[in-house]
Amino acid sequence: MKAKRMVIVSCGAFGAPSVLERSGIGSPEILRRAGVDRVVTNLPGVGYEYNAHDLIFCPYKSSLTPEETLDGIISGKLGPGQLIQSNGKIMGWTAQDVTCKLRPDDSEVVSLGPEFQEAWDKEFNTT
């Protein structure tokens, strides 16, 4: 594949190094070990010591069942092999809904004031 113009590949912070390396851009030693025969650009810093996505767990009580949370993975009770073999539903979601979308109840929405309530009703209220 060749490009006649600039191509911007956007695949996120974790995906960018692997796309670059598969394209032959990166450390020749790493590329050779990965089976990439043609080094297009010797750029050893690709993906080197990348750690910008630190992971912080904030436990909280929830009405969700264990099958609807990441508890099994975090605790080590479930492993990738077991989930693949059982075709676990968790393999199909990113877990963002159970880790990031803590929705206020109606009284909390009201307590945050009319400006918040108007924005909430317009953008997020699904009831």
List the helices and strands and how they pair.
Blueprint lengths: L11 H11 L2 E2 L1 H6 L7 E2 L28 H5 L4 H6 L10 H4 L6 H6 L2 H10 L4
Parallel strand pairs: 1-2
Oligomer: single chain
Report the major sheet: 2 strands, parallel
The overall pLDDT, averaged over residues, is: 83
**Low-confidence parts:** none
SS content category:
mainly alpha
How far the N terminus sits from the C terminus, by CA atoms, comes to: 49 Å
Helicity, as a percent range: 25-40%
Order of helices and strands: HEHEHHHHH
Strand portion: under 5%
Tally of helical segments: 7
What best-fitting shape do the alpha-carbon axes yield?
Answer: extended
Q: How many whole angstroms does the radius of gyration measure?
A: 22 Å
Taking strands numbered 1, 2, ... along the chain, how are they ordered across the largest sheet?
A: 1-2
The tally of structural domains comes to 2
